Amino acid sequence: MTENERKPTKALLPLAALSGALAGLAALAVAEAVAGGVRPQAGPVVAVGGAAIDRTPAAVKDWAIRHFGTDDKLFLQLGILAVLALFALALGMVALRFRRTGAAGVLLFGVVGAVAATGRPDSTGITDALPSVAGAVVGAGVLYVLAGRLRPQVPAADTVAPPGAGWDRRGFVIAAGAAAVGSAGAGLLGRSLSGAGGRDAVASRRNLVLPTPGSRARPVPKGAQLRVPGVSPFITPNGDFYRVDTALVVPKIDATTWRLRVHGQGVRRPLTLTFDDLLRRDLVERDITLTCVSNEVGGPYVGNARWIGVQLADLLAELGVKPPSEGGPADQLVARSVDGMTIGSPVEDLMDGRDALLAVGMNGEPLPFAHGFPVRMVVPGLYGFVSACKWIKDIELTTFDAYDPYWVKRGWARRAPIKTESRIDTPKPFARPRAGTVMVAGVAWAQHRGIDRVEVRVDDGPWQEARLAAEDTRDTWRQWSFPWQATKGGHTLTVRATDRTGALQTAKRAQTIPDGASGRHSVVVTVD
Fold it and tell me: Which single residue of 122, 297, 495, 524 has CA 20 to 30 Å from 82?
């Protein structure tokens, strides 16, 4: 056989691509299995995804949240998997001619995953590199073996091999089948180990009985929930409450091993609290509406819940912390999460008498894992990116000049009080109501200031005052309604709110970056 006859042919390229796919599958499966024993956040997809989030410009993140909503993380992971699949297919075809080069390409991706995992803010050390390294070694080995089975074998001296003939069909099928079965087994093992790692956390939440708060929230006023179809419920169910964060894997923390360290400037004596320590303190129950800074005008990232927690100001005062207005040296509280997130809040705001909480309960049950179990911060009047640290583990008192938290480093504002906003919940955009009385209704919010008035405008007509539902507290949103005498044709409905300080919701449009969107929500409808 001549040298040219020994070269792989194009007929084998589909099988070579399959080899790459199987090698990639094996690498990911083994990596996830090892991550199950190390920690789920160390898996290559999660680590690379987290690194991508950290390096993505704020405008792109905002675009993703706006278009994909709370599924933005799913789309990111699917995108990463799609890119990995394409490279795996390409490496398989490269390995048909250059086995070592193809295998080296797989190892290179292992290095990328290892660097991403160990470089994450929540990295626990060099062990976070193990999943990517182990997966890459196995994947490279699988590709090397499969590519070898596709290489033409030397035929007998008295025969002539046709194009594509002579490769080890039986050996390839056996090796490919073994790789597929092994990958499936590794994947199942990874799921089992990951599940086992979170069982203690799940058990600690399931067995938790929250103490009765010493200071209960008053019953929600009867008139706070309007009987208008399509209006958001006054209390947002936990399952419907928005979730916007950077965690690709929701941390599952065992409450029995959780610790919170409080330290920094102005702290007379640093303190480390256990979860039981927190529960033994005076608990309060409060209705508070939260708003994400990524919420566009009329957007869905706002929700109201009944929270149980400890007054953060009381804890800080016990440790000797004073706000800047009273001579305290720290003007910023930096909260750190177990996933590496850092969130900075103004000390002055946290200690001005508002119900800033270290929350342990949400709507009558322990915090859901997705919303910060076992402990998170809840601060009325501040956007979440400067207040709502989930899965909190550390509190440091410092200054805005000394430290820039995660979002500030990415172009967002250091201080971000929630803006006065309102939203039309019904009718929906492009609805086709019938002529006659149409109930226009929605919600308005200006946490820690309260809503004083809501007005609706039809087309370019005059502003007309809407009926406000009963107010729960100034820290919650408020529902409103307006009976519109609708006439046939196309119409634009616009809403605006005025808060208790007399500030009118601005008509000037602003993007969410750097400190929250502004403008007035409107919907277009056609009356039949």
Answer: 122
H/E stretch holding 393 reads: strand 392-398
Q: Which pLDDT tens digit goes with each residue over 183-231?
A: 999 988 888 887 776 889 999 999 999 999 999 999 999 999 999 999 9
pLDDT, one tens digit per residue, over 44-79 is 888 888 888 888 787 777 777 777 776 777 888 888
Q: CA dist 104 to 97, 141, 194, Å?
A: 13, 10, 29
Instruction: Kindly report whether the peptide bond that precedes residue 213 is cis, defined as omega within 30 degrees of 0.
Output: no
- β-partners of residue 497 are 454
Integer Cα distance of 149 and 242 in angstroms: 51
Residue 292 pairs with which residues in a beta bridge? Answer: none
C-beta separation of 319 from 268 below 8 A: yes
Rounded distance, CA 205 to CA 60, Å? Answer: 35
Read off the pLDDT of residues 35-53 as tens digits, 9 standing for 90 and up: 988 888 889 888 888 888 8
Contact status, residue 489 vs residue 526, Cβ threshold 8 Å: yes
Tokens 């087309």 correspond to 459
Helix (H) or strand (E) holding 378: strand 376-378
- Distance between CA atoms of residues 330 and 414, nearest Å: 15
Identify residue 343 by its one-letter amino acid code: I
DSSP states along 293-354: TTPPTT-S-EEEEEEEEEEHHHHHHHTT---GGGT-S--EEEEEETTS-EEEEEHHHHTSSS
Q: What is the distance between the alpha carbons of residues 349 and 414, in angstroms, rounded to a whole number? A: 13
Distances (CA, A) of 105 to 133, 139, 212, 347: 13, 10, 58, 50
CA 98 centroid distance within chain: 41
Helix (H, G, I), strand (E, B) or coil at 96: helix
- How far, in Å, CA of 66 to CA of 63, rounded? 5
Give the residue carrying structure tokens 């083994």. 30
Task: List for the chain the helix, strand, coil content (%; round to 5).
Answer: 40, 25, 40
Give CA–CA dist 345/101, Å, rounded. Answer: 51
The answer to whether 224 touches 472, Cβ cutoff 8 Å, is yes
